[in-house]
């Protein structure tokens, strides 16, 4: 397999996400969010993320969500008292959905189309909290570079809050005959490549731009953040799954794997 450059991988991921936006709109979840978002206290964040955000404190704060997708999580931040919310994503098609949701919401979140590696300067040194949720880190070809860009968005004392899938899961294939057999190295350096539309449940048998999913070890995540001038203040692993339904099979085991984590780091 010819490896793409970092820029090629990011560009191909953009194409794949743009193409997949129409499939996500076909889901019952979209219809549910579309009607719920008009409530001032709309919040689709689960208790785990809510708890961490409440601990960090978003009340009266300016928050940026990087990789905001259709903006439903960004809009949820108002229920926690956020003063201003900006969502950033490189997919124009998903931001169109975010604007559709905002038009129904009483809150005025702003959505900006940008690759996280090329954030406009107006986003620099502006936020109290930068939020990154489920399924963002692995689209980044270089996790250390990613954290340098994330850190730039924060005011001194501002915090990055991450709620992500656990990298141990990248070693397993939930669809394998034995879903517990170690299938791929924890230290894998080449990305997983998919040529079908990116959907959260099931598969759509249609060709799509290649999407590149990069595996990052916990140590790479920690080191990347530390090198970007961030001081880690919280890290917790959980036995529940926050990713595609297929991964629910790893929950409630006697020998339980960590399935997701929350993580906070402060810009010093
Ligand atoms: C799995 S989604 C995040 C979903 C989010 N947790 C939610 O539930 O809405 C990942 C998002 O990251 C965005 N993304 C991937 N690479 C990006 C990049 N380099 N810059 C900006 N956004 C990116 C994709 O367009 C996609 O919308």
Automatic annotation (TrEMBL):
Tell me if Ribonucleoprotein is a UniProt keyword of this record.
no
- GO BP, sorted A to Z: methylation
Q: Where is this region: Disordered?
A: 1-25
| Listed InterPro entries | Methyltransf_25, SAM-dependent_MTases_sf
Coiled-coil annotated spans: none
Keyword Methyltransferase included in the entry's annotation: yes
Which intervals carry biased composition (Polar residues)? 1-11
Residues in Methyltransferase domain copies:
63-158
Q: Which GO terms describe its molecular function?
A: methyltransferase activity
> Known SUPFAM superfamilies for this protein?
S-adenosyl-L-methionine-dependent methyltransferases
Task: Note one Pfam family from the annotation.
Answer: Methyltransf_25
Keywords on record: Methyltransferase, Transferase
Name the PANTHER family for this protein: TRANS-ACONITATE 2-METHYLTRANSFERASE-RELATED
Q: What is this protein called?
A: SAM-dependent methyltransferase
Query: Lineage of the source organism?
Result: Bacteria, Pseudomonadati, Pseudomonadota, Gammaproteobacteria, Pseudomonadales
């Amino acid at each position: 397999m010819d490896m793409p450059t970092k820029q090629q991988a990011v560009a191909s991921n953009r194409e794949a996400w743009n193409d997949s936006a129409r499939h996500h709109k076909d889901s019952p979840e979209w219809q549910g969010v579309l009607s719920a978002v008009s409530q001032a206290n709309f919040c689709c964040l689960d208790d785990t993320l809510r708890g961490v955000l409440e601990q960090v404190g978003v009340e009266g704060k300016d928050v940026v969500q990087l990789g905001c997708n259709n903006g439903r999580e960004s809009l949820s931040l108002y229920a926690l008292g956020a003063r201003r919310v900006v969502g950033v994503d490189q997919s124009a098609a998903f931001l169109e959905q975010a604007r559709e949701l905002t038009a129904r919401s009483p809150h005025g979140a702003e959505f900006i189309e940008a690759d996280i590696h090329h954030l406009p300067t107006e986003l620099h040194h502006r936020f109290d909290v930068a939020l990154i949720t489920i399924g963002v880190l692995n689209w980044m070809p270089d996790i250390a570079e990613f954290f340098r860009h994330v850190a730039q968005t924060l005011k001194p004392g501002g915090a990055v809050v991450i709620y992500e899938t656990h990298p141990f899961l990248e070693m397993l294939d939930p669809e394998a005959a034995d879903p517990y057999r170690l299938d791929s190295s924890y230290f894998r350096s080449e990305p997983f490549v998919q040529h079908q539309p990116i959907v959260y449940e099931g598969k759509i048998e249609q060709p799509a731009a290649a999407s590149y999913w990069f595996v990052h070890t916990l140590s790479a995540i920690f080191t990347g953040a530390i090198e970007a001038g961030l001081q880690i203040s919280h890290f917790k692993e959980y036995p529940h799954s926050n990713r595609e339904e297929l991964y629910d099979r790893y929950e409630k085991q006697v020998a339980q794997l960590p399935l997701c984590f929350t993580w906070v780091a402060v810009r010093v």
